[in-house]
Amino acid sequence: MSEKNHNVSRRQFLTYTLTGVGGFMAAGMLMPMVRMAVDPVLDAAAEGDMNYLVEFDELGEEPIRRELTYEADDGWYESEQIETIYVYRDGDDVVALSAVCTHLGCTVSWEGSEDYPEMFYCPCHFGLYERDGTNVEGTPPTEPLHRYEYEIRDGAVYVGQSEPQ
């Protein structure tokens, strides 16, 4: 291959040099600001925390409503969060479902409509869910109710984060 003769003028050399130096200086100034904004969000200290919900002996086959109150720290400030959970026993297993409708975030209720017994019902947009949280075809929700991870310690049920089914 033949080598081509590349001549760079003084003006091009200065342009390339100043652009590179300016880019490094801008990155050096922006990185601390970006890191300050992103680090608290990436801090996953609260993940995996289990919160007391109910005594295991109180559970039956009928879903009961419980309020879960906990302190949440999102990196910038702490706040008190309240979540509504429906929990019941399914044999030796525990089912803990979020009461937040997956359609638009309304609150569902167990047997909330006389027309739909033994179902979770969202009165805002007439959403329906089966007992296990599965959404009913032909109603607004497009996915099942979220399910909480749980563990049983000393005869009590503790729940963690909710996850899609």
From TrEMBL:
Record keywords: 2Fe-2S, Disulfide bond, Electron transport, Iron, Iron-sulfur, Membrane, Metal-binding, Oxidoreductase, Transmembrane, Transmembrane helix, Transport
GO molecular-function term, one example from the UniProt record: monooxygenase activity
Ranges of residues in domain Rieske: 83-159
Quaternary structure note: The main subunits of the menaquinol:cytochrome c complex are a Rieske-type iron-sulfur protein (QcrA), a cytochrome b (QcrB) and a cytochrome c (QcrC).
Protein's name according to its UniProt entry: Menaquinol:cytochrome c reductase iron-sulfur subunit
Pfam families (alphabetical): Rieske (PF00355)
Family classification: Belongs to the Rieske iron-sulfur protein family.
